[in-house]
Amino acid sequence: DIQMTQSPSSLSASVGDRVTITCRASQSINSFLNWYQQKPGKAPELLMYGASFLQMGVPSRFSGSGSGTDFTLTISSLQPDDFATYYCQQSYSALLTFGGGTKVEVK
Amino acid sequence: EVQLVETGGGLIQPGGSLRLSCAASGFTVTKNNMNWVRQAPGKGLEWVSVIYSGGTTNYADSVKGRFTISRDNSKNTVYLQMNTLGAEDTAVYYCARDNMWSYNRGWYMDFWGKGTTVIVSS
Asked: Residue A103 to residues A15, A52, A88, B96: CA-CA distances in angstroms?
């Protein structure tokens, strides 16, 4: 199975901060990497697909980059609605796997 | 409007069986791959199973041989039959639709249901 490792597992930030979350795959996954946001008690929601494509309706302050094994999700200016847990997920392998999640908390 | 509604969760004793349902509306389940993803209490997301648009299936190693995914095209519903349940299967189970940005591997889950809770306990 392809292992997905996210860092950090949690971070504290303030509104307006630039936030970067990293996701590393245990082998090359090309650009088959997706990002999801999940708020407590809610289902995950798709943010980015194909490493850098923004899902329709997602604010442009979110961006994604990377290919191969190393990927990043960046929030350019953190907003109150962005405090949540973020997950990466690979679709290169038929056995899909998620990263462990990064919780973005209020500083 | 795309909607996914999961039902069938509940409290079940270890070793028991349960069948989850995912009723879809706004699209046809035979046109998209459909996934089950679960989340244990306080834990991250774990992919469980997929039924591809063509009807073939795949499973995470943790459930292979115990869980079976299927669909009823006439009801536009996807199922997850879960057998030999253990405490490690306690989780919220989500149904999620796949969409594709690149042929063959470029899948992403663009719509999710609200989930149904399965608790395995005596």
From this structure: 15, 21, 12, 22
Interface of B with A (CB under 8 A): 35, 37, 44-47, 50, 58, 60-61, 94, 96, 99, 101-102, 105-110, 112-115
Contact A98 B45 (CB under 8 A): yes
The reported pLDDT for the residue numbered A31 is 96
- Residue B90 to residue B79: CA distance in whole angstroms: 17
| CB neighbourhood size of A2 (10 A) | 17
Q: Are B25 and B77 in contact (CB under 8 A)?
A: no
AA identity, residue B82: M
B47:A89 CB<8 A: yes
- Cβ pair B108:A100 closer than 8 A: no
- The answer, for A86 touching chain B at a CB cutoff of 8 Å, is no
State how far residue A49 is from chain B, nearest Cα, in angstroms.
Answer: 6
Q: What tens digit of pLDDT does each residue of B59-111 get? A: 999 999 999 999 999 999 999 999 999 999 999 999 999 998 888 889 999 99
Tens digits of residue pLDDT in A20-46 = 999 999 999 999 999 999 999 999 999
DSSP 8-state class, residue B42 = T
Would you call B101 and A55 a contact, using CB atoms and an 8 Å cutoff? no
